[in-house]
Amino acid sequence: MDELQPGVYRHFKGARYEVIALARHSETEETMVLYRPLVGDPALWVRPLAMWNEHVSRDDYRGPRFVREDASV
Q1: What is the DSSP letter of 18?
Q2: Radius of gyration of the chain (CA)
Q3: Where are the alpha helices (DSSP H) in 1-73?
Q4: Which of 25, 39, 57, 61 has its CA 20 to 30 A from that of 12?
Q5: In this protein, which residues make up the domain named DUF1653 (predicted)?
Q6: DSSP letter at 37?
Q7: Distance in angstroms (rounded) separating the CA atoms of residues 26 and 24
Q8: What pLDDT is attached to residue 3?
Q9: pLDDT, tens digit, for every residue of 32-67?
């Protein structure tokens, strides 16, 4: 499975998330990131690892979608 360490990550728009684990999609075997927002609704979410790791180009920002902040919440 691809490497992504659990910990706190900041989205390029500013929100912070806790990455809990990596998982594999049961049908496609695509690697997914299991995470939750650190503010607001604590629901668990999944996003494809490829999307998590991609670079974005929006308005005046060009860079990674998520940046790791810390290894603990």
Answers
A1: E
A2: 12
A3: 49-53
A4: 25
A5: 7-67
A6: E
A7: 6
A8: 85
A9: 999 999 999 999 999 999 999 999 999 899 999 999
- Give the Cα separation of 28 and 32 in Å (integer): 11
Q: If you classify domain 7-70 with CATH, what class do you get?
A: mainly beta
Structure token pair of residue 50: 């490829």
| Residue with token string 């990550």 | 9
What sign results for the dihedral spanned by CA atoms 2, 54, 7, 25? Answer: negative
Q: Which amino acid is at 21?
A: A
- Token readout for 18 is 């806790």
Ordered strands of the 31-37 beta sheet:
45-48, 31-37, 16-24, 7-11, 66-70
Q: Greatest CA span in the chain, whole angstroms?
A: 37
